[in-house]
Specification:
Elements lengths: L2 H22 L3 H21 L3 H25 L12 H24 L14 H9 L7 H22 L5
Helix pairs in contact: 1-2, 2-3, 3-6
Length: 169
């Protein structure tokens, strides 16, 4: 086995283990910390694939931005030590059915898709082109994705406050 394969299996194991811990943890701060490990490991996979821009976005936006917003929201609403309630049997059955349906759909889609061969075009990227693409709203522009990301961060902040907020009744 090569070093890349070993690193792939390590990152994959971290992602699987901490994903399960994220959704099964009853303490919300621990779940947010486990989510951080999942997102950082996903960035590691992107770096292995040489998708450096995507890996940097994964680290800064998701691991750095959303998880920090969630953790600050939990800490600000003072429910750090609160435990979430255990789900009932019907919720567990529906969650299992939804997970099985999602996994079946994903596996079916992957097996049915014909992956076309592509030729890799290598070329130099000009800094001016990157700058113009960042402010462009056209086909290859990044202005619209950055606006969508800002709305995503706002939604994450509002959602984490709603989840972490203590009920008065």
């Amino acid at each position: 086995m090569t070093n890349n394969q070993i690193m792939f299996f390590i990152f994959s194991a971290i992602i699987v283990v901490f994903s399960v811990l994220t959704v099964t943890s009853r303490r919300i701060l621990r779940a947010a910390t486990f989510l951080l490990f999942v997102l950082v490991s996903t960035a590691g996979l992107y770096f292995m694939l040489r998708f450096n821009f995507l890996a940097a976005i994964q680290l800064t936006l998701y691991a750095g931005g959303i998880v920090v917003l969630i953790i600050f929201s939990i800490l600000l609403t003072s429910q750090v030590g609160a435990k979430l309630e255990l789900p009932g049997l019907t919720k567990k059955i529906f969650a299992l059915l939804a997970a099985a349906a999602g996994a079946t759909l994903c596996i079916y889609t992957i097996l049915q898709y014909k992956f076309p061969e592509t030729a890799i075009i290598s070329g130099r990227t000009n800094i001016d082109d990157i700058g113009k693409a960042l402010v462009n709203t056209g086909k290859f522009g990044y202005a619209l994705p950055f606006e969508v990301i800002s709305i995503l961060l706002l939604a994450a902040m509002i959602g984490s406050i709603v989840i972490a907020k203590k009920r008065k009744d």
